[in-house]
Amino acid sequence: DAGVTQSPTHLIKTRGQQVTLRCSPISGHKSVSWYQQVLGQGPQFIFQYYEKEERGRGNFPDRFSARQFPNYSSELNVNALLLGDSALYLCASSLVRGRDSTDTQYFGPGTRLTVL
Amino acid sequence: AQKVTQAQTEISVVEKEDVTLDCVYETRDTTYYLFWYKQPPSGELVFLIRRNSFDEQNEISGRYSWNFQKSTSSFNFTITASQVVDSAVYFCALVSNFGNEKLTFGTGTRLTIIP
Asked: What are phi and psi of A8, to 5 degrees?
């Protein structure tokens, strides 16, 4: 079975531009989460979506937004890019057996965003 | 608030040596999950293990073993007879409470196995 896929692999943008990153979860997984990993640090939680609804939000500015589609794929949008947004953006999917469950997250290869 | 501390920034050992990666966590919740992930140079985080706060049994999987001690809030990871393929950055992570999946990661330990 295919794992979590993300596109594009790499992206170069300039300050002030907008970017959209895409993620397809493992087949059968209904939850998608997004993380930002700055070089040399651990990933930081941005969003979790479950059944197309936002289930959790990390401490990120409103320039960051996301959505989940009926097929459970997801997009992460970042507006008004700053140099500090340069990072590896990781998507993870999980099964989520119920609203009170916590399941293991499986990660994709990431999208490396460089802001110049 | 939750916090995960991995005090060892970098570790280098010679192949076939045993190595232990330390993880100390903080949470006010009585129910939580602990995880270890491996990040090879390719960048993808690879899931290794998950433990919940009610299960303190140590676990062994091949050359890997994990020691969970609630008394010291630690969840340490040992690799026995290390191999070059074990070279990677290893992250310990925490999810507090059940019903959410917000992972709080440590800063990672870069492990280098010298042939």
From this structure: -75, 180
